[in-house]
Design brief:
This protein has 253 residues and is an alpha/beta fold. It has one domain: Metallo-beta-lactamase, Chain A. The protein contains 8 helices and 15 strands. The strands form 2 sheets. Strands 6-5-4-3-2-1-14-15 form an 8-stranded mixed beta sheet. Strands 7-8-9-10-11-12-13 form a 7-stranded mixed beta sheet, with helices on one face. It is globular and about 50 Å long. The structure holds zinc ion (ZN). The site of zinc ion has 5 residues, from loops.
């Protein structure tokens, strides 16, 4: 499996720093994980929406889904796909999209094949198995456990520290874990994690590798890494735009 970081800025984007979005390539399938602000232009540098096999939206905060509207416009008004784009997301995704897109339901379903996921259900994209793992973020939110090519990747989306994060980390070759509380925040947040939380869950689940993401804009990546390392002995990296992680080990770009 290969995970390419399209963007990873927590909460809001910066110059050259899109919000949450990743391109996962596994078993000859391309899956866009979260369509945060600014991630569609980055995605298009590596694939196009006609060759994309699926999109997974963890939750409906704009920094994880706002570029879905732009993707819809590209597919609705540009060259069409042979088949609707499969989109997996939380309950309420269709209800959320209709006023944003200002389209009739039939047009929405012509362009997107939306599946509103349920906790612990499996979804197949070719030979890639995606398991929805409900997390706690003050709204319906689902991390995803991806199994393909004999490898396991867990992605938390956004969540407070809760047992489901350990489930996402369980035996994972790579745990992609949000750590927004990596810098002082302007107001108290109870629905996101710290680098220490990420380290604790990586340890508890036996993850072989931890990648911190969704850091607070301006956070010091080295400090975040050190904070996570206080709780986890395995290899720790910090996501950055353009980085590519292979589940067989190593990072490039
Ligand atoms: Zn969020």
């Amino acid at each position: 499996m290969e995970l390419r970081v399209l963007g990873c800025s927590g909460g809001w984007p910066g110059p050259g720093e899109p919000c949450s979005g990743y391109l996962l390539t596994a078993a000859c399938r391309r899956i866009w994980l979260d369509a945060g602000t600014g991630t569609l232009p980055e995605l298009l540098r590596h694939t196009d929406l006609h060759r994309l096999d699926a999109l997974w939206i963890t939750h409906l905060h704009a920094d994880h889904c706002s570029d879905l509207a732009a993707a819809f416009h590209a597919l609705a008004y540009g060259p069409p796909r042979a088949a609707p784009l499969p989109v997996f997301g939380p309950p309420g995704l269709v209800r959320h999209l209709q006023p944003v897109l200002d389209e009739e339901p039939a047009e929405l379903h012509r362009v997107l094949a939306v599946t509103e996921v349920t906790d612990r259900a499996d979804y197949l994209v070719g030979a890639v198995r995606l398991t929805a793992v409900g997390v706690e973020h003050g709204m319906p939110a689902f991390g995803v456990r991806v199994v393909a090519e004999g490898r396991i990747l867990g992605y938390t989306g956004d969540s407070r520290s809760c047992p489901a994060i350990t489930d996402l980390a369980r035996d994972a070759d790579l745990l992609l874990c949000e750590a927004f509380l990596s810098a002082p925040t302007s107001r108290p947040f109870t629905s996101v994690m710290s680098p220490e939380d990420a380290g604790r869950h990586a340890s508890a689940g036996g993850a072989r590798r931890l990648v911190l993401t969704h850091l607070h804009p301006g956070a010091d990546p080295g400090l975040a890494r050190a904070r996570a390392a206080a709780e986890y002995d395995g290899p720790i990296e910090v996501a950055r735009p353009g980085a590519v992680f292979q589940t067989s080990g190593g990072v490039r770009a």
